[in-house]
Amino acid sequence: xxxxxxxxxxxxxxxxxxxxxxxxxxxxxxxxxxxxxxxxxxxxxxxxxxxxxxxxxxxxxxxxxxxxxxxxxxxxxxxxxxxxxxxxxxxxxxxxxxxxxxxxxxxxxxxxxxxxxxxxxxxxxxxxxxxxxxxxxxxxxxxxxxxxx
Length: 149
Prior knowledge:
43% of the residues lie in helices and 16% in strands. It contains five helices and six strands. Helix 1 packs parallel to helix 5 and helix 3 (75-83) runs antiparallel to helix 4.
């Protein structure tokens, strides 16, 4: 059965994921390195990992599989989840795919280099209503597609 894995640190759609998962009776793993208040919802598993680099990523990538869904803004984690056959969505609902992940990784490295050189201050546009709407639509569409498959 499909499970949803949420890379929860700085994730703006945790509550949205839980609402959609509840409609479909899907288990949700909310993975963070602390600071999260457990919901007590029977379909939600709060996983607290050590505060070490990539601990949440390692936990998710070690458990996710084909037919599962990952919610993350972390491009390297997205690549790892795709390798395991999972569907991967960004917080804005845009999918990471095997066709797009290479470019996303390359852009991530380019932006890191620009920030380090001082040519860019980083930061993208603020998360807005259109992003949330796109995310909800994309999550619902992907769950439906997995159910049909």
